[in-house]
């Protein structure tokens, strides 16, 4: 009974790893879905916070929208402070409270550059840092703000497109890694079908348990290393 149960669990795990959506599909669904920084579970009413990667992507998209809205407001002839205030109000940020000091500085004539840098998160805040530098250059040197913002928006869009291309190219290696991780379970299932009773050896003897522990550790290390390399390539 125990052997059949373990074989069934191994088969279910292998099927899940084989048929689960790859990272590129999940990312595409996130990009096309309506952004909701906080979601509620209807059953237990618990808040599900987005992952750091998803939150960083949301901040990058919001930064691009901010630059586009700011450029449009400046082109319409509004002052930089008024244009930034209206642009911030038009963009759906993951954390709107973080932009309140920016709106206050733009409205009251404060240090907008510092406020933008302070509001930028550690992950995904590159756009706000670039915009802060543009604002600082415009105030210090007197250069036109609209062309600088347009250049920042173009740079951010190029970087976002590059990250999406890298993620799509890494979908194959990620899927291959998951498939290879499932092969030991398939091997155990095949061994049980041939009457070799591999589970009895793995769970019923000290050498078998040592082999099982080493195999699981190596399998986990392989998945972790693949994920680390893919994440490093995405953030490069």
List keywords for this structure.
236 residues; mainly alpha; 2 domains; two-stranded antiparallel sheet; 11 helices; 2 strands; disordered N terminus
Quick recap:
The chain has 236 residues and is mainly α.
Molecular structure report:
This protein has 236 residues and is mostly helical. The chain has two domains: 52-163; 170-236. The chain is built from eleven helices and two strands; from the N terminus they run H-H-E-E-H-H-H-H-H-H-H-H-H. The protein has a two-stranded antiparallel ribbon. Strand 1 and strand 2 form a beta hairpin. Helix 3 (52-75) packs antiparallel against helix 8 (145-169) and helix 5 runs antiparallel to helix 6 (112-119). The longest helix has 30 residues, at 206-235. 22% of the residues are buried. Residues 1-8, 21-29 and 31-48 have low confidence and may be disordered.
Largest sheet: 2 strands, antiparallel
Spans where pLDDT lies below 50 across 5 or more residues = 1-8, 21-29, 31-48
Number of helices: 11
The span between the termini is 50 Å
How much helical structure, as a percent, in the residues?
Answer: over 70%
By helix and strand content, what is the structural category? mainly alpha
Helix and strand element order: HHEEHHHHHHHHH
* Total E-strand runs: 2
Strand order of the largest sheet: 1-2
Shape: elongated
Approximately what portion of the residues adopt beta-strand conformation? under 5%
What Rg, in angstroms, do the CA atoms define?
Answer: 25 Å
Instruction: Please tell me the total number of domains.
Output: 2
What average pLDDT do the residues reach? 79
